[in-house]
Design a protein that fits this description.
alpha+beta, Heat Shock Protein 90, 26% strand
Length: 125
């Protein structure tokens, strides 16, 4: 999904929660996924002026849902600092990326200052 407006953030949250429920995730896991999607989508909007958030079911040896957020924004200068609770460059609470890390089972972040950021997060059922 393309994330360009606050409405897009709300839409991706609904899609993620619905997919999680359809895939028989627990209610709490479905809400964790929706919250992580909200944080990633909001970051795309606020920090990069928009981007892409892909949502994909994972099947095979394990069942899960993958969130893949990509943008061509300014990137993250100090990833370690960005993953610190309470740190914010936009005046928020500073719990977005650290929260995604806590809510998801896997979280990989690749960011190149001046070129953009890619976050891959997976929640297993």
């Amino acid at each position: 999904m393309r994330i360009d407006t606050e409405s897009d953030v709300a839409a991706v949250c609904r899609v993620v929660r619905s997919l999680a429920e359809h895939m028989a995730f627990s209610r709490s896991a479905a809400y964790s996924l929706a919250t992580a999607a909200s944080e990633l989508a909001t970051n795309l909007l606020i920090h990069a002026g928009g981007g892409q958030l892909q949502v994909a079911p994972l099947t095979g040896m394990r069942t899960g849902i993958e969130l893949l957020a990509e943008d061509h924004g300014p990137g993250i200068d100090d990833l370690r600092l960005a993953l610190t609770d309470g740190y914010s460059t936009a005046g928020g609470l500073g719990c977005g990326l650290p929260g995604v890390e806590r809510l998801m089972d896997l979280c990989y972040i690749d960011s190149v200052p001046g070129h953009g950021t890619r976050v891959r997060a997976v929640k297993w059922r």
